[in-house]
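User: Before I run my own analysis I want an independent prediction to cross-check against. Here's the chain; please return only the structure tokens and, at the end, one sentence I can use as a sanity check.
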Amino acid sequence: MEKRGRFRVGLIQMDSGPDKRENLKKARRMAEEAAVRQADLILFPETVDYIGPDFLGNACEPDGETVGFFQGLAREHSVYLLAGSVTERRPGGRLSNASFLFNPQGEQIACYRKLHMFDVDIADGPAYRESDEIQPGNEIVVAKTRLGAFGIAICYDLRFGEMFRLMARAGAQAMLLVANFTRETGQAHWETLIRARAIENGCYVAACGQTGQKSAFRAYGNSMVADPWGKVIARAGEEEAVLTADIDLSYGEYVQSQIPSLKNTREDIYNLQCLSMRIYGE
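Assistant: Structure tokens:
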């Protein structure tokens, strides 16, 4: 259904586990279903290829077999495809949580590495430092494609509204979020935050999540698409699913004309600027 500013997005909600081969077989099967439903853009969830105890041993190279698998899916189905995120091996042995975006020719047109690390130390409670394992990225990313301009974010990034505002101010018309939210935080915050990011910026938010029981928690699922008015126009449950929604970017332009919060920013009082942003274009 691709027309200028109008397209169909397909969200692949998966229960990825410690068997990478099985995860990729499932990803192929579910991508085929999204393609049959005439999706123009397909999203996979965070750490789509592997969730298990050995992230280091299952990390992939940016030009390796795993990334090539998703590149091939984009080319095979002639779709834009965001390879959720994968654990990428970086120079020096560190890891990044990286999202790769491919065009219908299978060419990589953008790469985003998760910026915000979930580091928490609770008094008399649990401590977790994502940054002990993952090297954060250093750029906000907007990808300008023939479908539209997309801001890319991963999981915990959703809680940082300033990041989404900067992407919108750089021209993003839709935000593509991949995640692995816990059921506890998902039930409390997932929909509220997604709708808030859509309302604040007058844009679509397509949020694709993991589901199922992981080693340390149960993933929430509930992948969804919110429109620029904040209405949820498509939503999955907590089972594996292929979710599709039709996007009309002109609706975002209309909403922004009615509530011009992007234009009404008081930069004479506070500055919103980004010194580390990469704008990709085809």
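Sanity check: The longest strand covers residues 6-13.
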